């Protein structure tokens, strides 16, 4: 028996996404490469087209643009400006708000926020990507004490600076097992990082004692300001060592009583560690699980497994919808469409099994798609219930 819960009328708040590029990618090769995390040229050009995700995306866009084939989709989108694409796709997907990680793509390639908001009709809040800001300050400050003072200053009044929280990509640098280090160890790591700055003019923060120390400074400030901190968890390009990117590695942070007032948002459903992520959201009061429906690039069936695991154990107040879309608006669009469908079908299962009644299921769907993120990130729109 099917008890699908129709959530088509619920506007979504996309709790994790990235900016849309002002100059959209053109040509088949750069288009296909948007839908894989593989750096392998053959995978980016060819095998990516043989995935369940890509086939579904093209089929959905053929219907949306009223065209046929991959070529038809490319011609349709390339005849439109970035603003036209955003306007058509965001409005069709009924996207009420977005939470944007401003660290990628580079701000100089992104649509202006005002242009994006006008085109999409969506409310916007921005997050600061910690590692990018630390790297910028590290290049600027040649003494450890001055550098640390600049980091403290930078994390001290985040909302005053116009941002709604932090994003960390520690998983892409030194892993999620963030430790406490001696002052000497942090200073030694800073000296090594400065050697890289002297040699290359920039730095990649792969110095664990230093990065961990800076993250603790940011978390202390986030706890005081009750600021959400998003963590990249699990799935990503091979720059992530997936062995170090399980959400269970965050135990030190989740167990630290000093950080109880810092909401921790575990991104991408933690896929493939989605059961672990769902568990953490069910036991730690400040842990939230992001359910992401465009990235990872997976089938409807696997998104259903992820959603089923999350709804099986975590409170509905701890789950939030996202796309993890970046650069092109099609990802935000297909995530909203597929996310509503997948969440609606999993809620239908819960009704069929006698876990929830129809009203409770509808309420859970609205919270996951919209209300939890409105509240957590402090959007202007009020929670409607
Ligand atoms: Zn992301």
Indicate the CATH topology. Answer: TIM Barrel
In CATH's first tier, which class applies? Alpha Beta
Count structural domains: 1
Enumerate the distinct ligands.
zinc ion
Radius of gyration: 21 Å
Mean residue pLDDT: 96
Q: Write the CATH homologous superfamily.
A: Metal-dependent hydrolases
Largest sheet: 8 strands, parallel
Beta-strand residue fraction: 5-15%
Uncertain regions: pLDDT < 50 for 5+ in a row? none
Which secondary-structure class do the elements indicate? alpha/beta
Q: Give the end-to-end Cα distance, rounded to a whole number of Å.
A: 30 Å
Strand order of the largest sheet: 1-2-3-4-5-6-7-8
Strand tally:
8
Order of helices and strands: EHHHHHEHEHHEHHEHEHEHEHH
| CATH architecture term | Alpha-Beta Barrel
**Which shape, going by the Cα principal axes?**
globular
Helix proportion: 40-55%
State the helix count.
15
Observed structural traits:
single chain, 385 residues, alpha/beta, TIM Barrel, eight-stranded parallel beta sheet, 15 helices, 48% helix, 10% strand, globular, binds zinc ion
């Amino acid at each position: 028996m099917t008890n699908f819960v129709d959530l088509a009328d619920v506007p979504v708040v996309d709790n994790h996404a990235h900016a849309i590029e002002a100059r959209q990618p053109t040509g088949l090769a750069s288009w296909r490469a948007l839908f894989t995390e593989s750096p392998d040229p053959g995978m980016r050009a060819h095998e990516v087209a043989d995935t369940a995700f890509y086939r579904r995306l093209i089929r959905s866009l053929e219907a949306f643009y009223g065209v046929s084939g991959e070529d038809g989709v490319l011609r349709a989108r390339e005849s439109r400006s970035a603003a036209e694409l955003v306007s058509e796709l965001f409005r069709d997907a009924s996207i009420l708000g977005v939470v944007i990680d401003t660290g990628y793509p580079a701000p100089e390639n992104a649509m202006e926020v005002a242009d994006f908001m006008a085109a999409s009709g969506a409310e916007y809040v921005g997050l600061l990507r910690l590692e990018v800001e630390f790297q910028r300050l590290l290049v600027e400050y040649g003494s450890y004490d001055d550098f640390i003072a600049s980091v403290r200053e930078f994390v001290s009044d985040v909302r005053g600076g116009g941002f709604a929280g932090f994003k960390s990509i520690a998983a892409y640098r030194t892993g999620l097992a963030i430790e406490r280090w001696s002052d000497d160890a942090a200073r030694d790591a800073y000296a090594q990082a400065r050697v890289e700055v002297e040699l290359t003019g920039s730095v990649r923060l792969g110095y664990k004692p230093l990065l961990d120390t800076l993250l603790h400074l940011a978390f202390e400030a986030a706890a005081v300001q009750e600021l959400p901190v998003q963590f990249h968890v699990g799935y990503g390009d091979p720059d992530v060592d997936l062995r170090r990117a399980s959400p269970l590695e965050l135990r030190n942070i989740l167990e630290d009583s000093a950080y109880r007032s810092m909401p921790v948002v575990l991104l991408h459903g933690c896929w493939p560690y989605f059961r672990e992520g769902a568990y953490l959201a069910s036991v730690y009061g400040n842990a939230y699980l992001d359910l992401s429906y465009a990235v990872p690039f997976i089938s409807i069936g696997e998104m259903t497994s992820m959603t089923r695991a999350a709804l099986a154990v975590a409170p509905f107040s701890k789950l939030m919808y996202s796309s993890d879309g970046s650069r092109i608006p099609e990802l935000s669009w297909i995530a909203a469409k597929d996310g509503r469908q997948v969440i609606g079908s999993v809620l239908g299962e819960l009704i069929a099994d006698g876990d929830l009644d129809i009203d409770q299921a509808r309420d859970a769907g609205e919270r996951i798609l919209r209300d939890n993120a409105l509240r957590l990130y402090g959007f202007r729109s009020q929670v409607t219930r």
